[in-house]
Each structure stands twice: as structure tokens, then as C-alpha cells.
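#help-structures
NK: newbie question, is this the right format to request a structure? protein is Winged helix-turn-helix transcriptional regulator
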Amino acid sequence: MHAPADLAFETTLLVRDTCLCLHTQRAARALARRFDVALKPAGITSGQFSLLMSLNRPKPPNLGSVAALLAMDRTTLTANLKPLERRGLVETAPDLTDRRARLLRLTPAGRAVLAEAAPIWRHLHAAIETALSDPNHLRSELNLLSRSDGVAG
């Protein structure tokens, strides 16, 4: 077995200063914390807000389509649904056209929480956008990076 080679500290600095993954993760955590604090009066986290909002559709979506929208695997989505189901905010039902699939539906209580949270989100989101030089460009670039096929390279 070879002894591990020391990695130059310059590489650490390069990653710290340029790594898109690191900078995106840091920004995501900071944004999530801001939204978590703002949404606390509505009794949900930023992740729960996104999940509940993804269910606010004219027809109940299936688990797979919500997982794809949120870029989550089905197991993680199921785990994130459990506390919302226990609180009576979300319910699942079998899809009558495909008994193997599960449909996800906001309950009236879930709709009420979402209605309470939406103005909070709007206010904080607008404030954050005013601090950015070009929020539409940032959104476009983030969407490019989040595509499942990734960026060529």
C-alpha cells in the first residue's frame, strides 16, 4: 500500500475560491436558513414549503413526478412526506389508473398552511432578488446546472 500523498494547500485554496459546488452548497444553505426563519410562523421549513408548493396543482401528481421536479430520489421524498402526512397537511392515495403509483394531495389544512406561507415567501423572495444584480440570469444558470444530463465536460 502506498502512503497517501500530501495535497498542496494551494489546491485547498483553489477549491475554496473557485469550486462551483462548494459555492452553490453554501448559498443554498444560507438561503434555506433565511427562508426557514421567515417561514417558522407558518410552521414549516423551506424544504417543506417547496414540497407543499409542488403539490399545489389542479390534479394530484404522482410520487415520481414530484421527485423529478424536486430533484429528489423517491425514498428521500417519501421520508420528507411522512411528517407532513402526520400533521394532516398531505395525503397519499393509490392512482386509480395505475394501482402501483401513489398520488399526492394537499389536504385543506395543507392548503391553509401554504396560503399562510406564500406571502411570507413572496416578501423574502422579493427582498433577496433586489440584492442580486441579475436574478433571471442566475435562475437560468442554476436551471442549466440542475438538468439531469448535466453540463458537457
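mod (FA): yep, format's fine, and the C-alpha cells are attached above. The mean pLDDT is 93.
NK: thank you!
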